[in-house]
């Protein structure tokens, strides 16, 4: 009985005092165990390492202030690093040089504001390496979240003073101060092959994830496109060969940044409708898409063209992706069954 009273008193004192977390990159957390009122005193808890990515710790804010992490990987034979905000891919950074697979490091990296002065100790010493650039931006994003950023102040802008030999460049700004530049080496993870669209979608993802701000419809200061001759749309008739066809591949999704824009079919894209983009199926064709990972299915109508990224066979609306459970992963292996019109 005395032992039980002693343990209870110690637990109450520890809870009342509270110890503020440190600025370390990795902190020690205690795994909870079941409480048995009639059991003997609790044994020494087992510690695990909880990695905090991009975290600036303070006595008043807990680990939920960390919303961004970076995942190094290889892309097109280059070292790359993708920033995930609340598990949604937002930005991908690429090295300028091709690297061998032996040099790739797939480990999750730390990007704390407390260790910004030690960034020179990163795996890659180059100042413009993908991991290093992603680390800096992830730390900025976490600091903005910690400070309670007004997400409606996050905007996308065309950089009018871009050097001619570097091509188009865009910036994601906060209160007219540049957060990150969108260019050939910094882009949307599921790229659209249009840097202005990459900048717009990445901006809208940050606006939504950091404060649920409404999406922007266009990039500020973007020059009007030069008129070009457009070939007339050729309608492909529905054939018996199309109906019943079963395709397999990777599905992706799109929504923020495209909502309200004209789709290739001419109708307004609605990210909340059950629609999808396909490269060749006639507009109006209905298909059943099944996520091979979880078995979920959804029927969508083709009203747009795409995706144009290699290996992907269908681009789902945000609503359809939510039903299939693809929102967090960004992509998933699917089976596409053509149902006809």
From TrEMBL:
Gene3D superfamilies: RlpA-like domain (2.40.40.10). Keywords: Cell wall biogenesis/degradation, Lyase, Signal. SUPFAM superfamilies: Barwin-like endoglucanases (SSF50685). Belongs to the RlpA family. PANTHER family: ENDOLYTIC PEPTIDOGLYCAN TRANSGLYCOSYLASE RLPA (PTHR34183), ENDOLYTIC PEPTIDOGLYCAN TRANSGLYCOSYLASE RLPA-RELATED (PTHR34183:SF8). This is Probable endolytic peptidoglycan transglycosylase RlpA. Its EC number is 4.2.2.-. It comes from Gloeocapsopsis crepidinum LEGE 06123. InterPro entries: RlpA, RlpA-like_DPBB, RlpA-like_sf, RplA. It is an enzyme of class 4 (lyase). CDD domains: DPBB_RlpA-like. Residues 1-24 form the signal peptide. NCBIfam families: rlpA (TIGR00413). The keyword Lyase applies. It comes from the Bacteria. Pfam families: DPBB_1. Residues 248-336 form the RlpA-like protein double-psi beta-barrel domain. Lytic transglycosylase with a strong preference for naked glycan strands that lack stem peptides.
